[in-house]
Design brief:
The protein has 386 residues and is α/β, with parallel strands linked by helices. The chain has two domains: 189 residues, Rossmann fold (3-Layer(aba) Sandwich); 180 residues, Rossmann fold (3-Layer(aba) Sandwich). Helices cover 41% and strands 16% of the residues. The strands form two sheets. Strands 3-2-1-4-5-6-7 form a seven-stranded parallel beta sheet, with helices on both faces. The protein has a six-stranded parallel beta sheet with strand order 10-9-8-11-12-13, with helices on both faces.
């Protein structure tokens, strides 16, 4: 960086994010909240996306940040090549100090374009361990992580999965997800107008939010619900999210006679209204980094029953802020859900403790400040000041 004129403020750090799209996923919510809060007096931010689409698009556009659509439909075809060339052209024009990729395709593009163009800090974000990636995906991810100068990970377990890809631990920085707790202040918990399943006033509502994909293992949740029904436990269940497993999950629910009790809500933009309407929040995942949906449910003071995988155990303390159960074990999940619904006083106690933990340990502003510090430290304090 060139030296500033005496008495002038330091030049802003040029920061280029590479994202996939703006659907209502955890990573996309994370980025949206961060882009809202980054200090614009210190950072000059641009966004490159593989596709300019998704329910969050209007909110991202309202931030007033430059957005460049790389127009990529698939990584491994002509649109992928053209998109990478567009990104390289953008990097040469913008000359970012930091390029930061998020998720699989964007990580690959950020690592390639950043290295080819000599960007000083080439960072990739890792949000999951690699239990469900194909051998080709793992090979590509390994290349992207080794080409990057830095990796940001959402939990210590995710950081170790980067090390398993060949990245020295010294190049991995853990920055845990944060949540905007104010989004859940004063929300109506009645669920009116939200399209939730009809039920009697005294029937508890179990809710979940997540992509309907193998790593989330909603089949285990549906199997647990069938066991609860067979044991005479009254409930209704609402699952918000879309994904490739939806047809099979709807068929499973129908086969088990649960269609009247389990509602698939599809992709929702109003999660901040949905969560307070749930009596119990649950995730039956087989793999997690640190799921934003869990953080948001805790911020909404919900009783949370989740599987003991990935970063879940780094967020939720069993017996204190919720319930942890073994993955792929419908009976254990059914038992914990039943306990949470039948002991409303204990569920309320753990829900309030969960919200307090979010207030003190995982605020969204703290997460943003940690990212800002990461960028400055990665560049070197002397360069930031020059």
């Amino acid at each position: 960086m060139s030296a500033p004129t005496p008495g002038s403020p330091p030049r802003r750090i040029r920061l280029l994010y590479v994202a996939g799209n703006f659907v209502t996923g955890g990573a996309e919510r994370h980025l949206l909240e961060m882009w809202r809060r980054l200090d614009r007096t210190r950072f000059d931010v641009r966004i490159a996306c593989l596709r300019r689409e998704g329910a969050f698009t209007p909110q991202v556009e309202a931030l007033g940040l430059p957005i460049i659509d790389l127009e990529v439909t698939k990584l491994y075809n002509a649109t992928g090549v053209r998109g990478l060339l567009r990104l390289i052209s953008l990097v040469r024009e913008f000359r970012p100090d930091v390029i930061h990729g998020y998720l699989f395709g964007p990580n690959l593009f950020a690592a390639l374009a950043g290295r080819l163009c000599g960007v000083k800090v080439v960072a990739v974000a890792k949000r999951n361990v690699d239990a469900f990636e194909t051998p080709r995906q793992i090979a590509v991810q390994r290349m992207a992580h080794r080409w990057a100068t830095h990796v940001t990970a959402v939990s210590e377990e995710v950081a170790q999965s980067s090390v398993a890809l060949g990245v020295p631990r010294s190049r991995v920085t853990v920055i845990e997800n944060g949540v905007d707790i104010a989004r859940f202040d004063g929300q109506d918990a009645s669920g009116d107008g939200l399209g939730l399943p009809a039920r009697a006033a005294d029937v508890p509502l179990i809710g979940s939010v997540g992509c309907l994909a193998p790593r989330k293992d909603y089949g285990t949740l549906i199997a647990a619900l069938a066991q609860m029904r067979d044991q005479g436990v009254a409930f209704a269940c609402a699952i918000a999210g879309e994904g490739p497993d939806r047809p099979a999950l709807e068929a499973q629910a129908a086969q088990l006679g649960l269609s009247a009790q389990v509602a698939f809500l599809g992709e929702r933009r109003d999660v901040d209204r949905l969560l307070p309407a749930f009596d119990v929040f649950t995730l039956s995942s087989r793999e997690e980094g640190i799921p934003n949906a869990l953080l948001e449910a805790m911020a909404a003071a919900r009783a949370c029953v989740v599987t003991d995988v990935g970063g879940n155990r780094e967020v939720l303390r069993d017996g204190v802020t919720g319930w942890l159960v073994p993955a792929q074990t419908p009976s254990a999940l059914a038992d914990a859900l039943t306990q949470a619904m039948r002991d409303s006083r204990e569920a309320q106690r753990r829900g309030h403790a969960a919200r307090e933990a979010m207030l003190t340990e995982r605020s969204i502003d703290a997460m943003v400040r940690r990212h800002e510090k990461f960028y400055e430290d990665a560049l070197g304090r002397d360069e930031v000041a020059s």
